[in-house]
Design a protein that fits this description.
Its EC number is 4.1.1.36, 6.3.2.5. The protein is an alpha/beta fold. The chain has helices at 3-13, 32-41, 60-67, 83-90, 101-109, 115-122, 135-139, 141-152, 178-191, 227-238, 266-277, 321-327, 350-361, 401-413, and strands at 18-23, 45-50, 93-99, 127-131, 156-157, 161-164, 170-174, 202-208, 212-213, 219-220, 242-248, 258-263, 282-285, 292-294, 315-317, 335-342, 365-370, 381-388, 393-400. It folds into 2 domains: 3-191, Rossmann fold (3-Layer(aba) Sandwich), CATH 3.40.50; 202-299 and 310-413, CoaB-like (Rossmann fold), CATH 3.40.50. It contains 14 helices and 19 strands. Helix 4 (83-90) packs across helix 6. The relative contact order is 0.09.
């Protein structure tokens, strides 16, 4: 049975998805308790398989209490049930968090000296590794080679986060936040396939809304929450892509495995997007850049006039980032996707205006949202029509922004060389 058939069987039977949570021996093992809680509270059937070293950090009673199941680390417990084979065979997803350098090496070379490594050899479902280790260990050629091999075999190895490590050390190697690891796993489970169809691709996604300052405390902005852009980044990472997310004034947590670049103004957004696009296979402009900015910014807070009059603010047009990257491609074959938040007016309907914009911007795909009445902004759901320069139109009915993100990536993937 293929991984996809395995997943489809689980869905059709109505049973809870079976997740194996492997925990290897790193200090970040305590964070896996929160990941386990997210899985169990969302209705997953979770079997925790810690290594012996992991139990030095978090004891078996904790794992048993949180999962509602007994915990074993060796292949000698309940031998008649053949756990070293059955656990992997019956899983819909195996996720190892944290995955140490030692565990990654064992998985790469097919070692099976405990229950977790044996489970990894027998699993025929999607496998996700969330590495956590010191920067020097992550950057070592041996670890990089092991990660590349695991990815070549179809495993999803999430890029570790940057931040505080053990002791006073900081750098890349920190375990991503449990909530974000959970979101990646949820994406993988919903797709139900080990196919990482964006592996080896570098994609750039922009998200959020820019701010154009009037003075030190006031700005012109918009209502974009960044939710759709973050969903796009998370979905691309779950499909194996290297993702750069340029986020304008977004307060959401960083998606696991994604490089996040934070900006405020449209000029800053343009600079970072154009820079990242130089090495990108696809650019998705989900951010909402301000169309205009003040000609000048006051150094001091603008005060109210005694006579009650209001100041006059002169505006100048901002650069059109989507038009720039759409008409001046940084790489041959690069796919460019824009977003259009439209309301329609006396000159045309939402789709009429969007088709004109598609041509004017020079992009390959334009995701059209009808935002009449403030729809879409800040909502977890979305609906859209994806217009293509080649004439294809794809209607996406109302659903999660994650679901829309995957439809967009499906359209992008079909246009990548």
């Amino acid at each position: 049975m293929s991984p996809t058939e395995h997943h489809d069987t689980a869905v059709s039977s109505g049973r809870r998805p079976r997740v194996v949570l492997g925990v290897s021996g790193g200090i970040a093992a305590y964070k896996a308790c929160e990941l386990l809680r997210r899985f169990t509270e969302s209705g997953h059937d979770v079997t925790v398989v810690p290594t012996a070293a992991a139990l030095e950090f978090v004891g078996a009673p904790t794992w048993s209490a949180l999962s509602g199941k007994p915990v074993a680390t060796d292949v000698w417990s309940n031998v008649h049930e053949v756990p070293h084979v059955r656990i992997g065979q019956e899983a819909d997803l195996v996720v190892v968090a944290p995955a140490t350098a030692d565990l990654l090496a064992k998985a790469t070379h097919g070692l099976a000296d405990d229950l977790l490594t044996s489970t990894l050899l027998t699993a025929r479902c999607p496998v996700v590794f969330a590495p956590a280790m010191h920067t020097e260990m992550w950057e070592h050629p041996a670890t990089r080679a092991n990660v590349a091999t695991l990815r070549d075999r179809g495993a999803l190895v999430i890029e570790p986060a940057e931040g505080r490590l053990t002791g006073k050390d900081t750098g890349k190697g920190r375990l991503p936040e449990p909530d974000e690891i959970f979101e990646v796993c949820r994406e993988v489970l919903e797709r139900g396939t080990t196919e990482l169809d964006l592996a080896g691709r570098h994609v750039v996604v922009s998200a959020g809304g820019t701010r154009e300052y009037l003075d030190p405390v006031r700005f012109l902005g918009n209502r974009s929450s960044g939710l759709q852009g973050y969903a796009l980044a998370r979905a691309a990472a779950a499909r194996g892509a290297e993702v750069t997310l340029v986020a304008a004034n977004v307060t959401l947590p960083d998606p696991a495995g994604v490089k996040v670049v934070r900006v405020e103004t449209t000029a800053q957004l343009r600079q970072e997007v154009v820079s990242a696009a130089a090495a990108a296979d696809a650019v998705v402009m989900a951010a909402a850049p301000a169309d205009f900015r003040p000609t000048g910014v006051s150094d001091a807070k603008i005060k109210k006039a005694a006579d009650g009059s209001a100041p006059t603010i002169e505006l100048v047009q901002n650069p059109d980032i989507l038009h720039e990257i759409g008409t001046e491609r940084a790489r041959e074959g690069q796919v460019v996707v824009g977003f259009a938040a439209e309301t329609g007016d006396e000159t045309g309907s939402v789709l009429d205006l969007a088709r004109t914009k598609l041509v004017r911007k020079g992009c390959d795909l334009l995701v059209v949202n009808d935002v009449s009445g403030g729809a879409v902004f800040g909502s977890p759901d979305n609906e859209a029509v994806i217009l293509a320069a080649d004439g294809a139109d794809v209607e996406v009915s109302r659903g999660s922004k994650s679901a829309l993100a995957h439809v967009i990536w499906d359209q992008v993937r079909g246009r990548l060389r």
